[in-house]
Amino acid sequence: MEGYSEKVMDHFFNPRNVGTIEDADAIGEVGNAKCGDIMKMYMKIKDDIIVDVKFQTFGCGAAVATSSMVTELIKGKTVDEALEVTNTEVAEALDGLPPIKMHCSNLAESAVKSAIEDYRKKQNGEKK
Ligand code: FES
C-alpha cells in the first residue's frame, strides 16, 4: 500500500468509533458521487456538544481512515466547531492522503455536516 502514511494505515486497520448508536440524536448519510461509496454517521449530542459519535461506511480504505479520524476530531466539540472541520484538516491529521484519494475525505466531512443538519432539524421540530 504505497503512498499511505502510517497514520492512515493505523486508522484503516484499527478504525475508531465504528458502529451505530441506537438512540442517536442525529444521523447523517452521504454518498460519494465519484465512486458510489456511502457513509452513515451517528451522534449523541448533549447541550450542543457531541458526546459520542460512530460511523459505518461502505467505502474504500481512505474513507475508513478519514471517517475514523474525523470522529476523533469532533468528539467533545460543539456542533458549531464540528461544522468547521474540513476534509483538508482531516487529511492533515492523517499526515496526508494521496491526491487521487482526497475525494474520499469529502465523505467524512459531508457525513458530519449531514448528521448536524439532521440534529438541527430535530431540534427545531421539538421546540415548536
Ligand atoms: Fe470511494 Fe474512496 S474510493 S470513498
From TrEMBL:
GO terms for molecular function: iron ion binding; iron-sulfur cluster binding. Residues 4-124 form the NIF system FeS cluster assembly NifU N-terminal domain. Coiled coil: none annotated. One of its GO terms (biological process) is iron-sulfur cluster assembly. CDD domains: IscU_like. NCBIfam families: NifU_clost (TIGR03419). This is Fe-S cluster assembly scaffold protein NifU. It comes from Candidatus Dojkabacteria bacterium HGW-Dojkabacteria-1.
